[in-house]
Design a protein that fits this description.
mainly beta; 6-stranded antiparallel beta sheet; 4-stranded antiparallel beta sheet; globular
Length: 146
């Protein structure tokens, strides 16, 4: 990567959970393929957390984008955020080397699972693929201004 390359030429927006108030329950980004990338990063932004709210994120892997044989990726979960702990208005990252997936058994897709407990949480999630095997990447952004 050189200093003249644009962010949008290197980092593809593969999926997103738009900024919203997420109710108690499990919310998934949906499975996306990392077959064309060597790395991915999940950017998690947490805003206001209602009284007693908890917020967990873990990344799962599967063999296809429909979630076949889904299972967790070891050590790819954030530390639980809590309203009582003063969390909120924070950003967390989960970095993934595609070699950390169970590639020997054909796992090349990921899903971000967000679990909200007790009360609502405002949050958003971006899933970015980078170190593309073939450039330029198809960026996935609604608009790129350079």
């Amino acid at each position: 990567m050189s200093y003249t390359e644009r962010f949008s030429e290197q980092f593809a927006l593969l999926d997103e959970m738009v900024s919203d108030s997420y109710a108690v329950g499990v919310h998934d980004s949906g499975y996306v393929s990392l077959a064309n990338y060597a790395r991915a990063v999940v950017v998690i932004q947490v805003g206001e957390m209602q009284t007693s709210a908890t917020f967990d994120v873990d990344v799962e892997q599967a063999t296809d984008t429909s979630g076949t044989s889904a299972k967790a990726i070891t050590d790819k979960s954030i530390t639980q955020m809590t309203q009582a702990g003063g969390d909120g208005d924070e950003t967390a990252l989960v970095e993934i080397l595609c070699d950390e997936l169970d590639v020997d058994n054909g796992f090349d897709c990921i899903n971000v699972e967000v679990t909200v407990g007790t009360d609502a949480v405002e949050a958003s999630v971006l899933v970015l693929g980078f170190c593309a095997h073939y450039e330029p990447v198809t960026h996935g952004y609604a608009e790129v201004v350079t």
